[in-house]
Design brief:
Layout (H helix, E strand, L loop, with lengths): L21 H18 L8 E4 L17 E2 L4 E21 L7 E10 L2 E8 L6 E19 L4 E8 L2 H8 E2 L2 E2 L16
Antiparallel strand pairs: 1-3, 2-7, 3-6, 3-7, 4-5, 4-6, 8-9
Length: 191
């Protein structure tokens, strides 16, 4: 989400013709390409999902945007075992918000050489939660959910954003979205 399920204000005012200016349209197209590029590399697609489900809802349907995973409980966990250890630093998941916001806690935990490491903990998912964390190399992620009522979840993904965000946003040391100079901190992989 954009700041805990808030909206993203794009500030695209119409020009004197009553149209969105061509430069703004081009920037939005580039922004869309960047987001599409990032989300096209879901590292969990070939993972093995395990967890409880009801109503013929498979935990593997978490990957889908059109199907929902329903555990049948308000407190549950699911795991994703990847075919090999992979570097990840972001997780995305969504609720079927048409049925209401129900999740009150989400926690993601990676297993690193037999030890568990908390990746993040938040108080909500909402339509979409996209959470970035320090890069880990793992083949097992567990997600723990607490909810007020039984939630329907979808759009689960694991990502390695550093390669995409730096390449996508920076060209010749400049931010391509607004042509400003950028500083890349290689230690934190942040722009």
């Amino acid at each position: 989400s954009i700041g805990s399920n808030a909206g993203l204000l794009l500030n695209l005012p119409p020009d004197r013709r009553g149209l969105i200016h061509e430069n703004d349209v081009e920037s939005i197209k580039r922004f869309n390409e960047i987001i599409t590029s990032i989300l096209s590399s879901n590292l969990a697609l070939d993972g093995e999902f395990t967890g409880e489900s009801v109503d013929n809802s498979s935990v593997s349907s978490l990957i889908s945007a059109s199907e929902f995973y329903v555990s049948g409980k308000t407190s549950f966990a699911f795991e994703v075992r990847l075919p090999e250890k992979r570097e990840i630093n972001a997780l995305a998941i969504g609720e079927c918000i048409e049925l209401g916001h129900k999740v009150t806690s989400i926690k993601a935990i990676a297993t690193l050489d037999g030890e568990e490491k908390l990746l993040f903990q938040r108080e909500m998912i909402g339509h979409t939660l996209a959470e970035r964390f320090a890069t880990v190399k793992t083949d097992l992620i567990r997600v723990e959910i607490e909810a007020l009522d039984v939630p329907a979840l979808k759009n689960f993904g694991l990502y390695r954003l550093d390669d995409y965000t730096i390449k996508a946003y920076v060209k010749d040391g400049r931010n391509i979205l607004n042509d400003s100079l950028v500083k890349i901190d290689k230690r934190e992989n942040e722009i």
